[in-house]
Design goal:
124 residues, alpha+beta, two-stranded antiparallel sheet, 2 strands, 15% strand
C-alpha cells in the first residue's frame, strides 16, 4: 500500500502503429516501490494490455487504495474523539463534558484529520 507518497508523476507515450504504450512512473514513497504491484496488475489484466491507458488506470488504483486507507484511519480517529467527548447525536450513548477532555489532543486529531482529508481530496 502506498502509505504517504510525496508525489506521483506519470508520463505515457502511445505509438499508433506499434500499438504500444510506454510509461514512466516516478513516485516518492516511504514504504518501498510499487513496481511489483504494477507488474502484477498488468499480469492479472493481460487482456487489457493493448489499452493505451492501462498504466494510468493502475496508478489511479494505487492512489485510490492509498487514500481509502488514510480516510478510514481519519474516520476511526474522529469516531474515537466523538466517543471520548460525548458530543454526538445519539440518545442511547453517554453524553460527555468536552471540557473534561484533553483539548490539545482533540485539536491535534481534528487538525490532522482535516489535513489528511483535504490532501486526499486533492489527490483523488
Amino acid at each position: 500500500m502506498l502509505d504517504r507518497p510525496g508525489y506521483y508523476q506519470l508520463a505515457l507515450s502511445y505509438g499508433k502503429e506499434s500499438r504500444l504504450t510506454h510509461g514512466l512512473l516516478i513516485a516518492m514513497t516511504t514504504k518501498g516501490h510499487e513496481v511489483p504491484r504494477l507488474l502484477k496488475g498488468l499480469q492479472e489484466r493481460h487482456m487489457y494490455c493493448e489499452q493505451p491507458l492501462i498504466l494510468a488506470a493502475l496508478v489511479a488504483e494505487l492512489v485510490v487504495d492509498s487514500c481509502a486507507v488514510k480516510i478510514g484511519l481519519a474516520d476511526e480517529d474522529l469516531n474515537a474523539l466523538e466517543e471520548e467527548s460525548g458530543l454526538h447525536g445519539y440518545d442511547n450513548r453517554r453524553k460527555g463534558d468536552p471540557l473534561d477532555m484533553d483539548l490539545l489532543n482533540a485539536i491535534r486529531i481534528l487538525h490532522f484529520a482535516n489535513r489528511t482529508l483535504g490532501l486526499d481530496t486533492i489527490r483523488l
